[in-house]
Amino acid sequence: MTNLEKYDQLFIKDLRVKKEDLEDLKYRGISTWDSMGHMDLVTDLEEVFDIHFNTADVMNFSSYEKGKEVMKKYGVMI
Amino acid sequence: MMIGEMSEEKGKIDMDYEMILARKPYSLCRAEKRELFGDWLTELTEYHRQHCPPYEKLLKALEIPSGRSMEEEDIPMLPIGLFKSMELMSVHPGHIFKTMTSSGTKGQEVSKVFLDTDTARYQQLALAGIGEDFFGDQRLPLLVIDSPDVLKDRKMFSARGAGILGFSIFSSHICYALTSDMELDTEAVEGFLKRYKDTRVLVFGFTYIIWKYFYEALAIQGKKLELDNAVLVHGGGWKKLISQSVSSDEFKKRIYSVTGISRIHNYYGMAEQTGCIYMECPCGNLHASVYSDIITRRAADFTPCEYGEKGIIQILSPLPRSYPGHSILTEDEGIIIGEDDCLCGRLGKYFKVTGRIKHAPVRGCSDTYEG
């Protein structure tokens, strides 16, 4: 599985969304991406990619697209 | 108002939020803060007047004129009880992203606080800023002294649930120390301790719950946990412990005796102004951050108290934008000790909370558990 596939899968599982909705997805843009959904997603991303975000980057992870930039900072190319 | 003017106005206010949220939480000196908060809260009062009809009606009834530039002390304040009896919001109901409730004791009405995505974001960033100042920016394993059931209802968070979720941004791995029945989950706690034996960890919970379901359970079992590396953060009020004659010092001593935790921070905060909590510094003082401020007032005529004089606590914060909660008169009493000169080095007012005002309905901030 590619990094993008893994990345997408976690969004689909944790935020209960469809693949076609991913692109425009924003933190607090849908009811399932609330702070609880956010923490689930962050925890899973850390586990699957074996990284550890700092607090600022948990907050910077504000959309599906923005998340890719944050992942890059931790050496994960999506 | 022209559309151009309106977006310009919104643009300026948005800029203020980004500016304050980008600042270090204890970096505004008295003169700067007075000016910023006077102007900003004046603007917000106008904003809520225009967007929350019941608020407008209240200010009219109180004969508070519109369009006047105010100092922080002149900003009209809503008694905290109003958030129980009225549904106050300054956005269209369709834009409410989350409703937060204070967990009142049984049979009591709860406050309802309506958050849109902007206000929810401001609050989370404020809490992140405050937390970072105290625990650093590396997220730590978190032991929550509560039951995971507190977060069952996702649309309506209690203050307890919101506190746990808020603190979870500082954490990398969460472990709940209590079961659904509020019993100590020994297996989970021991697993957590083993896994993070030599790591700094964060322990978070509500004061009364920590006392009753964590401390007492450990004391009865004669158990001692190895949590020497932990920082404990607790909040939610003392009133239940005061009635059992447990002081802050006693609390710290007893917690230390069963866990070995020596870094213990109390905080003061409430559902009606989430995020901008007042953390206790190593000198034992609660601190107002750049995201909020406090004033104490005399019960006789509501004039502001001098430093060192006990009064009713008023809390002010520009963060509440989706509801008119920017200036609230609480039912707590406290003493402001000083401003900008606490020995810990943090700028802003520092204070102590001494208890509840007399005759205030006994209200659980977040420390209430029906059991």
Automatic annotation (TrEMBL), chain A:
This is Acyl carrier protein. It comes from Lacrimispora xylanisolvens.
UniProtKB/TrEMBL annotation, chain B:
It comes from the Bacteria. Residues 18-368 form the Acyl-protein synthetase LuxE domain. Keywords: Ligase. GO terms for biological process: bioluminescence. It comes from Lacrimispora xylanisolvens. One of its GO terms (molecular function) is long-chain fatty acid--protein ligase activity. The keyword Kinase does not apply. Coiled coil: none annotated. Transmembrane segments: none annotated. This is Phenylacetate-coenzyme A ligase PaaK-like adenylate-forming protein. The keyword Aminoacyl-tRNA synthetase does not apply.
